[in-house]
Amino acid sequence: MVDVAKRSKRTELPLTEDLCRYRDRPLAIFGRYIRRRPLAHAAILLAILGAVGFSISTQYGVKFLVDTLSQDPDHAKGPWLAFAMLVSFIAADNLLWRVAGWIASYTFVDVTGDLRSELFRHLTGHAPGYFVDRLPGVLTSRITATSNAIFQIEYMFIWNVLPPCVATFGAILFLTLVSVKMAAVLVVVAAIVMLAMFKIAAAGRPLHHDFANKAAAVDGEMVDVIGNMALVRAFGGIAREHCRFDHTVAQEMTARRRSLQYLEKLRLIHALVVVVMTLALLAWAIILWQEKQATVGDVVLVCTLGISVLSATRDLAVALVDVTQHMARLAEALATLLSPHEMRDHPEASALVPNGARVTFENVTFSYPNGKRVFDNFSVNIEPGQRVGLVGRSGGGKSTLVALMQRFYRVQAGRVLIDGHDIARATEASLRNVIAIVPQDTALLNRSLLENIRYGRPDATDEEVWTAATAARCRPFIENMPQGLDTIVGDRGVKLSGGQRQRIAIARAFLKNAPLLILDEATSALDSEAEEAIREALENLMAGRTVITIAHRLSTLRNFDRILVLQSGKLIEDGAPDILMRSRGVYHDLIIRERERLAEQAA
C-alpha cells in the first residue's frame, strides 16, 4: 500500500514549467525539494548535529577520564563516572547516526523520485522540434545524471560536508578549555584554509563541466548506435563505429583524468597544511604542560582534537571537491533539460470543440528555427468532410503543413484554424483529441499490442480494441501471436513486419475516432495481398471525416475530392483529380511519371 501511495503521489505532481527558473540555479533547486519534506530534512539535520556533537564530546570524555585517573586513587567513583559519561557519548553518537541514516533512506530516495518525475514531465512537454537536434540517449542520461547528482550532493552534505564543519567548530570550542589563544589561532588558520579550498575548487569548475559534457556524449553515442544497429550492420559500419566510440571514450577519459588530477592537487595542498597545523598545536600543548598551564588530559585532548580536525578537514576537502564535480554535472544537466517549452498553452487558451473539422490556413508565414522559410502569406481552406491529397516534390512543404496543423511549431504570422478556432489559443489536450494520424513510419512503444492500439483512447474497453483491430484487418495476425493482444511488440515494433505495424497504426486511428484524419501514405508498407483489404478499411475510416493525406503514390488519390499541389511553399494547383488531369499541369506530369515508372518496374 505504501508503494502504491507513493506512485499515486508522484503521478499527481503538477506540470513543471516553473522548473525553468532553476535552469541556471542548481543550488536553488534543492530548496524546492527540501520544502516538500521540511520535517524529515530537519530531523536528519538535528540527528547529524547531535551525533557530531557527541562525537566531539567523546574527546572531552577521554580527557576527563585521563584527568580522573591521574588523581587520588582513593576516589573510586570518579573513574567510573568518567567511564559512564564516555560510554554514553559513544552510544548517543552511534545511535543518532543510525537514526539519520534511516530517515535519509526514505527522504533522499523520495527526492530523487520526485525530481525524475518532474524532469520527465518537463521534457515531454517540449514540442517535437525540440528533439530534432538532440539525441534521445543524451536527454535520458541527463535525467539520470541529475537525479544521481541531487542524491549524491544531499548525501555528501549530510555525511561528508556538514560533520567536518561541525566537528571543527566543536573542536575549537573544546580547545578554549586548554588555551583561548590556541583556539583563536586555530580559527584563523581554519578560516584561511577553508577560503583557499573554496577558491581553488571553484577554479576547477570548467574541468568538471567538460567531464560532465564528455560523459553525456558517451551515453548518447551508445544509444544512437544501438538504436540503429540494423543500419550499422547493413552498411558494414561495425568497425567504424568501434573506432568512433573509442575516440569518444578517449575524450571522456582525458576530461575525467584532468578533473581528478586537479582534485588530487587540492587534496595534497590541504593535507600539507593540516599536518603542519596539527603538529604545531600538539607542540604548543606540550609546552603548556611543561609550564604547568595544562594537565595531562589537556594534552590528550589537544592530541585527539588535532587528529579529529585533521580527519575532519581532510574529509571535508575530499567532499567539497566531489560535491564540486556533482554540482558541475547537475548544472550542465539542468541547463540542457530545463529550457522553456516552446509551445505552451496560451494563458487564455480554451478547449477546441469540433464541428465538422474545417481546416483553414489564414495568411500563414512560417520559417524553421534554423531560418529556412517555408510559407509566406500562405492561405487555404479545407471544408468539413473533404478528402484532400497533398502532393508535390520533396521540400514543397507537405510535411510542414501537417506539422503546423498539429501545432508542432509556432507560425510567425497568420493563423491556423480548426472549425474557426485558432489552434494557437486552443488547449493542447483538446487539439490532440480532434486529430488522428496514421504515419508512414509507424511509431510503436515497447509495450503490448493492446496498449499500442489503445494509446489514443486509454479508456477504451478490450471489446472496442478488438473491434478496431478487426476493422484494420489486424485480427488474423494478432490471433497468431504468442500472447495475442498481450504480445510485447519490441523496441519501435521490431517484432512486427512493416505492414503489421502500419495496420496497428490504422487500428489506433479507428479506435480514437477523431473528426480530422491525417494519413502519411498509410498503405506504403503493406504487401500487395493485404493492401486492398486495408484500402477498404481506410475507406471506412475516412467516412464522415475530414481527411488530409500526404501522398507518395498518387494512384491512392483517385477517389479523393481535392488535390493540393505544393511547390516551394506555394499552392500552385488546387482542384479535383480529374480536373487537374485535364489541365495538364504539374499534377498531370506527376501522374504520367508515376505510370511510366510502374510500367518499367512491371517490365
Give structural notes.
- This protein has 19 helices and 10 strands.
- The chain is an alpha/beta fold.
- It folds into 2 domains: 18-337, Up-down Bundle (ABC transporter transmembrane region fold); 359-602, P-loop containing nucleotide triphosphate hydrolases (Rossmann fold, 3-Layer(aba) Sandwich), CATH 3.40.50.300.
- The strands form 2 sheets. The protein has a 6-stranded mixed β-sheet, sandwiched between helices. A 4-stranded antiparallel β-sheet has the order 2-1-4-5, covered by helices on one side.
- Helix 3 runs antiparallel to helix 4, helix 3 (38-70) packs parallel to helix 5 (136-175) and helix 5 runs antiparallel to helix 6 (180-203).
- The radius of gyration is 35 Å and the shape is elongated.
- The two termini are 68 Å apart.
- The model is unreliable at 1-16 (pLDDT under 50).
Question: How does the SSE layout of this entry go?
Answer:
Elements: H1 2-11, H2 28-34, H3 38-70, H4 77-124, H5 136-175, H6 180-203, H7 205-227, H8 229-234, H9 238-290, H10 296-337, E1 359-367, E2 373-382, E3 387-391, H11 398-405, E4 413-418, E5 421-422, H12 428-434, E6 435-438, H13 449-453, H14 462-471, H15 475-479, H16 498-512, E7 516-520, H17 528-542, E8 546-550, E9 562-567, E10 570-575, H18 577-583, H19 586-602
Parallel strand pairs: 3-8, 3-9, 6-7, 7-8
Antiparallel strand pairs: 1-2, 1-4, 4-5, 9-10
